[in-house]
Amino acid sequence: MVGVLAFGLACFPWSGRAQSGRPHPDGAARESFTNPLLDTGPDPWVVWWKGFYYYSNSTETNLTLRKTADITDLRHAAPRVVWTPEPGHAWSKEIWAPELHRWGGKWYIYFAADAGNNASHRIYVVENDSDDPIEGTWTLKGKVSDASDRWAIDATTFELRGQHYLVWSG
């Protein structure tokens, strides 16, 4: 069974430093904060599988995974580009919010992408039948949409009573 661990690195690129003198909830001023896991990592996603954490975040240009047995040592897990889109397609640019999921013995990464114009952002999915998502070949399966085919980002998927569902922001 695949386990999911949610944590917040950041929802946007950042320097890892808070504004000087910004008040903390306990009322005391704090000079800075450095994220202990990664300096940057917009749209983070983590899945646990067979003793390892597989981490992804938005990179804008490709789908990258990190594999580690110790999530607190994520910064030392080598990033591995697992899929890069061919240029000139509706899914070639602004790759955001990749989520790694395992269904029926295969891996899937759902992500938002466009052709260089944010208004055309849609959800896409790639598939890999390797037991380890860092290995094997990732293949574009296509766009995931409803009849409205409107702007879509931040997809996530879940199973309920044996049915798979995909939801997104749009």
How would you describe this protein?
This protein has 170 residues and is mostly beta strands. The protein has a single domain, classed as Tachylectin-2, Chain A (5 Propeller). Helices cover 0% and strands 44% of the residues. The strands form four sheets. Strands 1-4-5-6-7 form a five-stranded antiparallel beta sheet, with no helix packed on it. The chain has a four-stranded antiparallel beta sheet with strand order 8-9-10-11, with no helix packed on it. Strand 9 (106-114) and strand 10 form a beta hairpin. The protein is globular and about 50 Å long. The two termini are 30 Å apart.
Give descriptors for this structure.
170 residues; mainly beta; Tachylectin-2, Chain A; 5-stranded antiparallel β-sheet; 4-stranded antiparallel β-sheet; 13 strands; 0% helix; globular; disordered N terminus
